[in-house]
Amino acid sequence: MNSPIVEIGLTDWSQAHPEPEWTRAVEAGKVLYFPKLGFQLQPQEQALLREELLKAGTRNVSLGADGLLKGAAGNEQEQQALAEMVGRFRQQALQLVDDLLPEYKGLLRLAPTSFRPKQVENRAQSVRADDRRMHVDAFPSRPNYGERILRVFTNLNPQGAPRVWRLGDDFEAVARQFMPRAKPYRLWQAKVLKALHVTKSLRSEYDHLMLQMHDLMKFDETYQKSGTQTTMPFPPGSVWVCFSDQATHAVMSGQYMMEQTLYLPPGHEVDPASSPLAILTRLAGRPLVGVGAGKAL
Ligand SMILES: [Fe+2]
Predict the structure, then answer these.
(1) Are 244 and 151 a contacting pair, CB within 8 Å?
(2) Domains in the chain with CATH codes
(3) Are 263 and 148 a contacting pair, CB within 8 Å?
């Protein structure tokens, strides 16, 4: 297995000079890793690194594109400080991506920015929801028809704890392994899910296959234990960027990080043939979204 990491020695969020090989690498499913690019906390922001600032029953604090903060506990002043901190990270993440991957400029759609104060190793959850198992990101309720999920992460841990990921084989190798086991897509089932509001729009065959891969990977104990993988500890004061719908990953441990998601419309990659949509379409031998998809199913 080639290294799933491409290390970049950038030290300033606004000083990235793009190199075409970085876009190629991230589109090949690699993680761009910036070991010297930390998010600088203001002195008073150290006090925000507390799990109690997460509202009971929520996974993350998130700052919407509209500037509204959700999922936060704490008093008004603390919530305002959280919104400021997360908002500053958003600005820096957007600047980084614009400079680093200029081919996507003007095309990316902003998703909420999250602050995740929970300790990963203590989260009790179902196999399907357990992100400590290798997976690719796929949304059960929000079909995306091949829209790409680009994510920027930074580790804020004040005690020096790394955020430990496992990174797996490239997307095509994993797709070749799991696609033959996927349940067939049924258009009528997708229609029922939509009618019941389980999904916000009609689940395409692409979305179905991505969810199948997500689930089949997580439930396969042999793959989880002995599939091709590399352990990668991201230390505090580092940043990493990847297409999380393509880079096979598991989040093993860590606490306190921020994350910015950006959506890239399908087909706007520099090399669209390297995308999960193109790879799955090629392996399936038929269109998985749009005109011609779902025929004879
Ligand atoms: Fe994930």
Answers:
(1) yes
(2) 5-284 (2.60.120)
(3) yes
Question: In this structure, what is the dihedral angle of CA atoms 5, 11, 14, 16, given to the nearest 10 degrees?
Answer: -50
Distance (Å) from CA 191 to ligand 1 centroid: 27
Distance 296 CA to ligand 1 centre (A): 33
Q: What is the Å distance from ligand 1's center to 204 Cα?
A: 21
| Cα distance between residue 208 and residue 214, in whole Å | 10
Which residues are near ligand 1, the ion (C-beta closer than 5 Å)? 137
Strand 31-34 to 5-7 pairing: parallel
Q: What average pLDDT does the segment 53-80 reach? A: 94
pLDDT in tens, 214-264: 999 999 999 999 999 999 999 999 999 999 999 999 999 999 999 999 999
Which residue matches tokens 């860590």?
Answer: 254
- State residue 296's pLDDT score: 44
Measure 271 CA to ligand 1 centroid, in angstroms. Answer: 23
Give the predicted TM-score (pTM) of the model: 0.95
Cα 278 to averaged position of ligand 1 atoms, centre (Å): 21
Centre of ligand 1 from the C-alpha of residue 123, in Å: 14
